[in-house]
Amino acid sequence: MKDKIYKILPDFLQGLLISLFNKLAYKERYGGKYQYYLNKFKANRTLSREELVAVQKKRFAEFLSFSKEKSDFYKNYELVELEDISQLPILKKEQLRQSIKDVVTISKKDAIVSKTGGTTGKSLEVLYTADNMQERFAMLDDFRGRSGYQLGKKTAWFSGKDLLTSKDLTKKRFWKTDILNKVRYYSTFHIKESYLKYYVEDLIKYQPEYMVGFPSTILEIAKYGINHGYTFPAKTVKAIFPTAESITEEMRLHIEGFFKTKMLNQYASSEGAPFIFECQEGSLHLELQSGIFEVLDDNNQPTTEGKLVITSFTTEGTPLIRYDIGDSIILDDPARSCQCGNNNPLVKEILGRIDDYIYSPETGKINLGNVSNTLKDTKGILRFQAIQDELNTISILLVVDHSFTPKVEEVFMSNWRARVGQQMTINMQIVQDIPVEKSGKYRIVKNNIKHLL
């Protein structure tokens, strides 16, 4: 009913309705113990590595004990020290889905409900306690606050909110504004060549201090602005905070170049993974206060590059202990420290979704970063998507402009051959548009054969 009412309201009243909805949401996020947690994280910024590990050990003991007592799923778990966490079983995604009623510790009516995007075709509903949600937002706001961000600063937000009406499309208005909190939500469902002009021009006019959201959307806007000679006002955007998607070097090059500011990466998840934050020095830090990060190989042995198994201290509503979240990272040298003063361990690279790769029988796995780098020395390719439905075949959809020539296609194909070898069949198809997922995210890679590997 509320959606139907929203759709028939004029633009101004829709903005007020969004403000009202956000006011209720912010009461949950920023009430209770939020300020206590925010003050704590600010105070803890300069803790030594030894102090951070001590906090992590204490929180793990408390969290494991809580989960064992409150969750039917964990009731038979052994109480172990952090050093012996490998004695506990690894929790897979499908197991979590099937056992969710036994895992949760609170009822849905008393919870804050979060739904995963379901890009693999299966969504998951996770329950948070209000206290845990407030702690997560405090930790996130502490990270963003290091760049001056706080609620009420003019912000451009790019997420999976479906807020537009047919009248908006007619008027070429691809955004809605929370007037009270100065947040303009830009649609991520209408990113195509004929609309990007309106995004660029409105962002130049709106002049946000901060930008938050899907980097794939921000990338398309930046590339359009660069290719069509737009100049974004210097010293306008103080920082860009990407969410939900992996960051590639191409994204940094175009986004930071056009908007003339730094993009500060972060890692979390809808399920409630612990945080990884990028500092102003460009280093990625594991936040030990938020949970435990294990990087394991295919035999579940510790390694420096592999799948990420997490234990998150802010998931008391749906406890996550040794959860195989489906992402992968590369750890940095444990002896290396960062000049920013944050003494948490460093991450060399967030590789992102383990499923976001192309598999070649000849060369093996080609990860998201290498797939993205197939654009090297090309021009005219506005967007592409690689889809693998068969072991020996990939399909590549391309959205191109007039500068895409047979020579460019040859270079692009050569880049792919360098990665997948000479034996795979590569089917390229030029299309008018490549749609985003239901969540509003854009996927460069869609691997549909993981069950064969």
Automatic annotation (TrEMBL):
<dbReference type="GO" id="GO:0016874">
    <property type="term" value="F:ligase activity"/>
</dbReference>
<dbReference type="InterPro" id="IPR042099">
    <property type="entry name" value="ANL_N_sf"/>
</dbReference>
<protein>
    <submittedName>
        <fullName>Phenylacetate-CoA ligase</fullName>
    </submittedName>
</protein>
<keyword id="KW-0436">Ligase</keyword>
<dbReference type="InterPro" id="IPR053158">
    <property type="entry name" value="CapK_Type1_Caps_Biosynth"/>
</dbReference>
